[in-house]
Amino acid sequence: MEKKNVLIVYAHQEPKSFNGALRDVAVSTLEEDGHDDPEHFNFQKELSHAAETGKLADDLDMEIKKILQADLIILQFPMYWLGLPAILKGWLEKCFPDRVCYDAAKMKWFDHGLFVNKKLILSFTTGGSASYFSNTGVFGDMDVLLWPIHNSLRVTGLQVLVPQIFYAPGDIACDDRKQMLANWRIRLRDIWKEDPFQLVHIDNFDPNFGFELSEKYVQDYKDDTLGPTAGQYM
After folding, report:
1. Which N-terminal stretch is annotated as signal sequence (predicted)?
2. What is the predicted pLDDT for the residue at 232?
3. What is the pLDDT of residue 42?
4. pLDDT per residue over 107-156, tens digit each?
5. What is the DSSP string of 169-200?
């Protein structure tokens, strides 16, 4: 199998947490599959505008180079307050600059973005069971909660995969948590074959009218029962 580069962004304060165990499964599984050549991470070849101008701190420059080199990005985190933990939100805000990870001025974004050949997956734990995150649950539909995260990441062109969600690992038996880890390992084996979930193509938004859905698209789908995504209602 062709070697790939994987960037795992681990966002949890406690290494012994279940998120830590999920990270370890990802690392060991991918290393076993041969994605572990340390000399292959030649970041110097991945120059960005920010690096060329010397306006970024060294640590941020290095993080961006990791992103540019990665074939797959795994965001591993616990869901806090129905969203990303602050440490991960800060990382995203600082490490995906315009003209480096996408170019809005040239419309090199979304389906025409710079990262169209890269995959990304959210792998995260929750404090509540799956029923909490249904359309009748106390926290609401998980797809709606994840919409702003997924769509903002897609600005770069990333192929966003169906998320890997581990519901309430702290409330289940040890054997059930072990099964969660085993299922994650199984998915990672074939994750390269997965297709991203489909969202409305950027060409269906009219740049002359504030990037709203084009009238043609609205008319074509006006009789559908559901809107095209959680974020665009008809």
Report:
1. none
2. 72
3. 33
4. 999 999 999 999 999 999 999 999 999 989 999 999 999 999 999 999 99
5. GGGS-HHHHHHHHHHHHHHHHTGGGPPPPP--
- Cβ neighbors of 135 (< 8 A, separation 6 or more) are 141
Token pair in block for residue 122: 């959210």
Q: Which of 115, 120, 125 is nearest to 84 (CA)?
A: 125
Token couple for 129: 């069971």
- The token pair at 47 is 């120059």
State mean pLDDT over 93-102. Answer: 87
CA angle 165, 170, 172 (to 5 degrees): 85
| Closest by Cα among 32, 174, 155 to 97 | 155
Q: How far apart are the C-alpha atoms of 152 and 157, rounded to whole Å? A: 10
- Count Cβ neighbours within 10 Å for each residue of 95-119 and write b for 16 or more, e otherwise: bbbeebbbbeeeebbbeebbbeebb
Domains in the chain (CATH in brackets) are 6-198 (3.40.50.360), 200-234 (no CATH)
Residues of the chain above pLDDT 70, percent: 89
Residue 59 to residues 1, 92, 94, Cα–Cα distance (Å): 32, 14, 11
Report the Cα–Cα distance between both ends of the chain, in Å, rounded. 44
Alpha-carbon distance 42 to 65, whole Å? 9
Q: Which of 31-35, 59-63, 140-144, 180-184 has the lowest mean pLDDT?
A: 31-35
